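REQUEST FORM: STRUCTURE PREDICTION
Request ID: SP-0412
Submitted by: Lab K.M.
Chain count: 1
Length (residues): 196
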Amino acid sequence: MDQGGDDRCHPVDDALAAFHGLPDIDRRNLANAASVLAARGTYVTREELISEAYVRMAEGRRLWPISQPFTAYFAGVMKSLLSDRMFLTDEGKVVRLKNKMSVVRPDDLPRVAANDDSEDLRNKALVEEIVSVLETRIAGDEDLELLWAGIQCDLRGKELQEELGVDVKQLATLRTRLNRHIDKICTEYRAKEGRS
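STATUS: Completed
RESULT:
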């Protein structure tokens, strides 16, 4: 699937001007996105996410693509920070290390799945590609971007409603809209693979 796209980026000064010129509603939406992404303070606070995203933007380490709305770009920078080990707080590093530690006895080695399973790697690459397409399609739709960020942070039900500032009916409507995008992308991929 050809996603086209424009690889050019705005100058850093334009990104800084866009940040400082954000209307209040966009500032609130980015703050809400940061709250969702910070996963209720497990690793970092929303203020730390916004601050670090701003620093990386100002230093030119994360450039703003011309093809992307500013709020979607900035939310993407914040989201990417969550997987950056250099940005995790000390507590977050300890939690991650503790949760990933495991001991495999030599007797168990034959039962441990190999990391080079090509089918698993293909499936992982396909899922990552579909998620990338989804994120591109919902870019600029702040409600869907916030919903997607909340889902990725494992927020559900009432917790998700509160983070998004919506009621049950509005949340259902947002989920329906997101599911339509996902269904459409899956249909396109099945057709592409000749499995329609």
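NOTES: The chain has a mean pLDDT of 76.
Reviewed by: T.R.
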